[in-house]
Design goal:
Blueprint lengths: L1 H11 L3 H8 L3 E6 L2 E13 L32 E6 L3 E8 L6 E12 L1 H7 L13 H7 L16 E4 L9 E4 L16 E4 L29
Antiparallel strand pairs: 1-2, 1-6, 2-5, 2-8, 3-4, 4-5, 7-8
The structure holds a DNA duplex (13 and 13 nucleotides).
Length: 224
Amino acid sequence: MASEESELLRLLHHPATVVAPQLLGAVVQHSTPEGTVAVRLTEVEAYQGPADSHTPDPGSHSYRGQTARNAVMFGPPGHFYVYFTYGMHYCANIVCAPAGTSSGVLLRAGEVIDGLELARHRRPVSRNDHDLAQGPARLASALGMGREHNGAALHGGNFKVTLGRPLPAAAVLNGPRVGVSGAGGSATYPWRFWIAGDPTVSRYKAAAARRPPQEPVRRRSTPA
DNA sequence: GGCGGGATATTCT
DNA sequence: GAATATCCCGCCC
């Protein structure tokens, strides 16, 4: 409904670090001629733009200013920022904070709650249903999202985004972001948020070190 | 269930 | 020319 829509838009005017945990439990629905798939978000990450806060975020695509790729992040909130990476994958963000700023929330994982058959068809390699959207590129794939959806509105067209019921504080955990490397950028801020105990939360290892260690690493080093 | 390595193309330096 | 907000496969515990 329109009121739900405006509630979402109101939320999306806040910085990514505020928006991200509130998007947990929200549902992203995408309809195509093939059918409809809906995903309930269980894991997200916040990326702040340079103008959004005094804390620099080298992990953000917008850290070095506007380029052709990240232009959508600098636009108004309420749109998808979809980028292509590693030569084969797409990842989807929800742009937040007012136009002129460049925050976004990366959709990292979710539970497919509608269109299971179509999602399985799009991701034949998944062996379990909780794998279907377990990871940002998997989630985009399950939803049938690609380059053509960069800049698409969250509402209207073939998309619909609905906030979930507020989660109890204890159900939301946070920690370092995944795959964010680079000097100063790696895991600097605990801006990854997920729903505690949910089986669809991604389990990938953190970013690999940029350079190999100077000496072989012992397999059985003592844990912390 | 975890680790290592390769695939693959767009993007920015 | 290097790096990348990743995923999948094969191999080993």
